[in-house]
Write a structure and sequence with these properties.
By secondary structure, the chain is an alpha/beta fold. The chain folds into three domains: 2-142, Rossmann fold (3-Layer(aba) Sandwich); 148-214, Helicase, Ruva Protein, domain 3, CATH 1.10.8; 223-349, Up-down Bundle (Zinc Finger, Delta Prime, domain 3). Helix content is 56%, strand content 10%. It contains 16 helices and eight strands. It has helices spanning 5-13, 29-43, 66-73, 94-106, 127-134, 148-160, 168-177, 182-195, 208-214, 223-232, 235-247, 252-274, 279-284, 295-304, 307-324, 331-349, and strands at residues 2-3, 21-25, 53-57, 83-88, 114-119, 138-142, 164-166, 204-206. Helix 6 packs parallel to helix 8. The longest helix is centred in the C-terminal third of the chain and has 23 residues, at 252-274. The chain starts with a strand and ends with a helix.
Length: 350
Amino acid sequence: MKLTGARANKFVSAPQADIIGVLLFGPDRGLVKERGGLLTKYYLPNPDDAFAATVLTADDLTGDPAKLADEMSALSMFRDARLVRLRLDHERNGAAIAKIIKSFDTEPGKAEAKLIVEAGDLSPRSAVRKAFEAAGKFAAIGCYAANTADLSNLVRTSLNEHSIAINNDALALWTPLLEGDYAMARSEIEKMALYKGYGSEVEARVTLDDIRTLAAGGQNVSIDDIIMNAMSGNVTECDASFRRAVAGKMNSAVILRSLQRHIGRLLEASANMDSGESAEGALRSLRPPVFRMQERAFLGQLRIWPGTMLRRALSQSLEAEKQLKTAGAPVDAITGRLLLALSGYAGKRR
């Protein structure tokens, strides 16, 4: 069966007893690992029992894929709970694994152990993914990067557990920097909590300065610096800020998604202007509102970019995102070229 959204979260917290195995897959390897850890704790009351868990890799099944079936059907020495964990780094034995899943789904009584499979981003055509999604006694859960709203909620909830609040402007700067890896986001939040007085009795508050001081990718340059310079036609400043971001290990894919959101807001304002609103009125109608410090630059971008060119810019950014998902793609170079192309166009229109 295929589990998504709230159903997936509920299952990870309390798996159905009749489910034999779970496939965790997706581009967010941090979330795959975290959910795998949570399920392991649930299935194994005593994680220190060396006889209770068997860990396999995809290479362990090369030449002998039946090893997975053997481990799943092997009796526990002490009749305690058993768990098999498979780290699926490739699918060279995908068809054989899928056949094993179908066999246990047909005869669930043969299973003496629970199964957790941790994989990367599997396409809908993946034999393993299709087997788990089609089965009644197995579950498939995709692990994708959290959206902005989810991350904002994660930040506020996690900090609140330690009596730490966060200013709205700090949250707006920090959230895009956390995109891409759930485990990294958790680690960054924990680091900030420690920095602000983890465990203290007095409520602390995270400010914009805290993000710029401590947050990974927050030093020296923000995503807003890059995007506003690009769309305003400041070629030199755009290139310099992007290079600093890359040197600071900022995720280029995060920059690209933030650029797409900004272009989307420009398109929304541009459409309102086409309906008769003034530029100022179109800006004020946006939700969430444009930061006061960026209003002048935003209005300038509305003059620079007609709707047709904004749509073309968005199309080019989506194409760049597709290229980023290709294995081994030079992500920084692809993002950098797009930013230079956009800033070059805007610079000629100023």
